[in-house]
Each structure stands twice: as C-alpha cells, then as structure tokens.
Input
Amino acid sequence: MYQTQAKGKVIIIGAGPGDPDLITMKAVRYLRQADVVLTDRLVSEEILDRYVSATAEIIQVGKQCRRGISTPQKTINQLLLEYALQGKLVVRLKGGDVSIFSNILDELQTLTAEQIPYEIVPGVTAALGAAAYAGIPLTARDYSTSVRFLTYHKRDIITDKYWEELAHTEDTLVFYMSSETLNLVVEKLTANQIAPEKLLAVIEQATTPMQQVYVSNLYQYNSTLKGKEFLSPSLIIIGKVVELYNQFEWFKGNKTRTHYFKPMTTSVEPITVTEKEKEYADRAQA
Output
C-alpha cells in the first residue's frame, strides 16, 4: 500500500563504458545508499555486485533497439516516479555518461514535472573510454584539434551538406550507435572525397575483456570490414588520430567474441501512478 511520506530523490548516474573500475567514487557512494536501482543493459554486472546493497531492489530497464526485449522510456519514467513518490532513494544507472546520447531529457522532464529532487552524476563516456583503451588520443597534437560526437542510427539525421563538411574537416569524428549504418557512413564520406590518410577504427565492447579493435582505410573498407557484424556496443572513430592505434595500443582483450553485456530476458511491466498517490506525496512534502 502506498505510504504517505516525503518524496524521495533520484540520482542519475553514468556508470562508464564497461570496465567497472571506471565508475566514480560519488556514484559508488550513492549506489551503496540506494533503495532502488534502475539499470541499463550496458552496465557491468560487477558494479551491481560490488556496490549495491543486498537489501536494494535492482530493476533491469535496458533497451536493445530492434534486437529482442526492450524497456519503453515511458515505463522507465513511470518507475522513477513510482519509487520516488514512495520516499525512496532511487538510482537511475546508465552506461557511459548520462549526457551523451542518453534519454536523460525525458527523465528530467518527468522528475521536474512532479517536483522530485534529483542529482546528475557524470561518468566516463564511451568515446573517451574506447579511445583511451585503444591508445587513440582524440585530439593528439598535429593530428586533430577538435572532436565531434555524432550518431547515424537514422538516415535523415545528417544532411548531404553536413556530410560534405564532415568529409573535409580536420576534426576527429566519433560515431555512437552507428555500427549498423557503417556502410553508409563510409559511403557518404568517401563520396565526398575524405582524405585517404584518415582511417577508420571500430572499437567493439570497449574497456571490457572482450574489446576488439578493427582498423581500415576508408577506401579499402569494402574489402576489409564491409559485411562484418559488430557486437554491441561498438564505437566508430574516424580521423588521422586512428593512425596512432598501432603505436600506442596497450590494452589487450582476451580476443573472445562473446557478449560482455547480457541481453535482456524479461520485460518490465509499466506502473501507473494514480493522481491520489501524487496527492498524498504532495501533502507529505508540504
């Protein structure tokens, strides 16, 4: 039964790209205090095992796009609201950083609409983790002075004019969530005469023991990597800095091509927060 008590609090945390040792101390402190943890699929199970209290409730709310079971964002929003209105400390645990290609906006809008207090704890985003573990400095001197974070999971995200700019910029390009459209990324860049010295790196399951790195010249892509199915998550780096991989690679995965992040096996049922429950919580907060 719903308890009339003060509203709880939601802590939105970036867990890092895979290696559980990359999580921040502040994130660990909140995980140890949490009553409920709503976790994405791309979060190391070691983080949950190490830092979450045995009395806390852990709810898997991962998304897998078109590949199997996924949790709708509306359901995640409802769960945040439900548990916070019960006066609980809720951790929303996301892979990577919470502000880079994350649905944090939907969740912030839900929380602010109900005047539920929250904090945002940043994490190591996938681009920085992947680049570091592949030995690719994203803005290495004399190679690049800027970096762009992009995504191309939908074909209408980038205009033809912007593809032309991307092909000629000296910026390092980092594509998130784009392994399934990589053929088109290469096609667009080569059609716009990207410089042949700019290389492509696909970093698969970065910072995990299963990390794999594939490097190719974009103009040789069709004979080297085209048609390869990359394991999720995979990150793409394009630019002159990729040349540094062979010189500075330091992290050696175990070369096993298996999934580090387990697929979702069960779905989460949505919860409806009634107007009466909201009213009770508001009275308790007053």
The chain has two domains: 9-125+260-285, 136-248. Residues 136-248 form a domain with the Methyltransferase, Cobalt-precorrin-4 Transmethylase; Domain 2 fold (CATH 3.30.950.10). The CA atoms of residues 24 and 123 lie 7 Å apart.
